[in-house]
Structures are given as structure tokens and as C-alpha cells.
Amino acid sequence: MNRHIRKVAVLGSGVMGSRIACHFANIGCEVLLLDIVPRELTPEETAKGLTLESKVVRNKIVNGALAFALKSNPSPIYRKSFASRITTGNFDDDLAQIASCDWVIEVVVERLDIKQQLFEKVEKYRTPGTIISSNTSGIPIHLMIEGRSEDFQIISWEHISSIRHVTYNY
Ligand SMILES: NC(=O)c1ccc[n+]([C@@H]2O[C@H](COP(=O)([O-])OP(=O)(O)OC[C@H]3O[C@@H](n4cnc5c(N)ncnc54)[C@H](O)[C@@H]3O)[C@@H](O)[C@H]2O)c1
């Protein structure tokens, strides 16, 4: 099956996720990069009058991770301007935006329970037929997608580890 990939969602902005996001931006894709919301404020944030509802706090983890990746040497981004193709957000406020993505890539911490919980939410918001994949190092796919609908399982099985026929926005 041929696919045209214009926009990807990268769920998790750690070592792998932030760099995967950059590589998709490098090849011309629009990227939605999401991560968790922090549970506590730092003393500095409290002193500034920020709360756990402040956007700057809610997107702190994803923005910090992306900034760190962009500054790393060698940089994962081929041109600084390509970074503008990456939009950041968090799982609590922005997951619904995956509905407009052609490919959703899960890159969160290597824990079955966390990946299962995230795939449950992904199923709620994805557009049926969207490619869903995982960057897992070794968790069996059938466990990660346990409890998901048949349609979600089929698309995941087909694409989770063997995407071959895709074209990008060069
Ligand atoms: N690092 C590697 O060399 C490597 C290689 C191949 C595959 N992987 C796989 O890629 C995935 C990510 O690895 P990484 O090295 O980027 O890890 P990382 O620790 O750098 O990043 C993990 C991400 O998960 C997020 N996270 C933590 N708790 C969470 C929760 N409760 N809910 C949702 N997200 C949460 C973190 O905020 C972070 O963005 C893992 O499945 C790992 O096995 C890693």
C-alpha cells in the first residue's frame, strides 16, 4: 500500500522521540511532538506566579527536550529553520490533534502499562486507518495493543514494524 505522509505525531520527546521528530521535520513533514505534563511546580515557577495550569509549565517537558536535542552536537536538524515544522504540546491538552496526522509514532518510556494506556487514548482520537507504530525496544506488539479494537489492531500489526511504501513532502 502506498501512503503519502504529510504530518506525523511523535508521542514522547525523550532521547528517541525528540530526534525522530527532527528527522521527520528534515524530510519536510509537519510534526506534532507531545509529552507529559509535569506534576509539580519548581520553587522558581512558584516564585514567578506560575501554576500547573500555565501553558509554559504544561509544555515544559516537551519544549525542554526539543531544545536539548536541537542544541546537541551533531544536531539532529539539518537546517535550523526546519525546526519550525515541529509543534509541541502535551498529552492532556493536545492529543486530539493526532486526528489530523497520517502517522502516529509512540516513543514513550519502555513500560507496557504506560504504552497500553497511551494506545487506549490514541485509539480514541486517531482517524481510523492512520498508521500507528511503536519505537519499543522489545515489548511484544500483541501486548501493547491488547484491548484495542480490531481495526486498530490490524493497522498496527500491518505497520508497526514494517513501513516500506511511504512518500514524504520533499
Ligand atoms: N534510547 C535508545 O537507544 C532506544 C533505542 C531503540 C528503542 N528505544 C525505545 O524508545 C522508547 C523511548 O526511549 P527513550 O530512550 O527515548 O526514553 P527516554 O527516557 O529518553 O524518553 C521517554 C519518554 O517517555 C515519557 N514518559 C515518562 N513517563 C511517562 C508516562 N507515564 N506517560 C507517558 N510518557 C511518559 C518521558 O517524558 C520521555 O519523553 C522506549 O520504548 C525505548 O525502549 C530506545
Layout of SSEs?
Elements: E1 3-5, E2 7-11, H1 15-26, E3 30-35, H2 43-47, H3 55-58, H4 60-71, E4 86-90, H5 91-94, E5 103-106, H6 112-125, E6 131-134, H7 141-144, H8 150-159, E7 166-168
Parallel strand pairs: 1-7, 2-3, 2-5, 3-4, 5-6
Bound molecules: nicotinamide-adenine-dinucleotide.
Instruction: Examine the coordinates and then state which fold CATH places here, giving the name of the CATH topology.
Output: Rossmann fold
Provide the spatial order of strands within the biggest beta sheet: 4-3-2-5-6
Helix/strand/pairing class, anyone? alpha/beta
- State mean pLDDT (0 to 100 scale): 91
Described by strand count, sense and barrel closure, the largest sheet is: 5 strands, parallel
The 3D shape can be described as: globular
Number of DSSP E strands: 7
Low-confidence stretches: none
Radius of gyration: 16 Å
Any idea how many domains? 1
Within CATH, the superfamily carries the name: NAD(P)-binding Rossmann-like Domain
Residues in β-strands, percent: 15-25%
- CATH architecture assignment name: 3-Layer(aba) Sandwich
Helix and strand sequence: EEHEHHHEHEHEHHE
Distinct small molecules bound, one entry per kind: nicotinamide-adenine-dinucleotide
> What is the class in the CATH system?
Alpha Beta
> In percent, how helical is the residue content?
25-40%
Number of helices: 8
The termini sit apart by 20 Å
